[in-house]
Design the sequence.
């Protein structure tokens, strides 16, 4: 039973990891004008990713100091997901 819970949590954290990677890369491509956010398809994906991840980033932005042109919240959230997935979760379930 515990292994099933562990695997579900690993799956969820893996999906969050992938979504965050896509969001980070897409933000770079939009900022460097490789992708145009005004295109319907790109804009729809970008809006969807922002709606998914903004509730995760917002509390982190409240804790971090204001670094106006550079948003460090995605980096911190990404590191938290990696730590949860690779260090904390296996240790909590006794798999390390």
Sequence:
């Amino acid at each position: 039973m515990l292994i099933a819970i562990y695997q579900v949590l690993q799956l969820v954290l893996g999906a969050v990891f992938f979504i965050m990677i896509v969001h980070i890369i897409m933000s770079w491509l939009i900022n460097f004008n490789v992708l145009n956010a005004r295109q319907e398809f790109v804009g729809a994906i970008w809006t969807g990713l922002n709606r998914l991840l903004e509730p995760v980033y917002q509390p982190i932005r409240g804790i971090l100091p204001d670094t106006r042109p550079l948003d460090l919240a995605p980096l911190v959230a990404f590191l938290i997901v990696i730590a949860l997935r690779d260090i904390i979760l296996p240790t909590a379930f006794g798999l390390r």
